[in-house]
Amino acid sequence: MLKTAWRGSRYLELWPEHKILGAIFPEIRVKYVMRWGRRLIPPFIVFIILWNYVQGGGLKGVSFIYTQTSNWPLAALSILFLLGIMFHGYYWAGRRSQLKLGGTLKQYYQDLCARLSRPARSEPDLYELAQTLKEGMKKLGPSILDGL
Length: 148
Description:
Layout: H1 2-14, H2 19-24, H3 27-55, H4 72-97, H5 104-116, H6 126-140
Helix pairs in contact: 1-4, 3-4, 5-6
């Protein structure tokens, strides 16, 4: 599972951002959400820890939200939930990157590899397509997406 999530992280970093790709593939939307998650979840985790510390009596806080003086199990569960959201996004991307191309996408991949003068794999997956798209956009420009 961790290997798949790691592959998903690399896959989302590799996936090129363009309007045409955003209309066809959900990766750009997931990439956007994961980018915001990396920015917002750490402050939420710090807030959960500090809030639980203050509500549990630290800094002479008054316990008016929780019925118990210390609720660290709930804080730990909340933190694990937030981390699980991020893990799930990367795991989803890792699983998606392993999907084999079929039909028109496979044909488009093979044509793009021919235009880039690089060998095409016989059974490409979405990770291979992302690598080829990124290379193609660098060398040939965004006009390569018109064939999609």
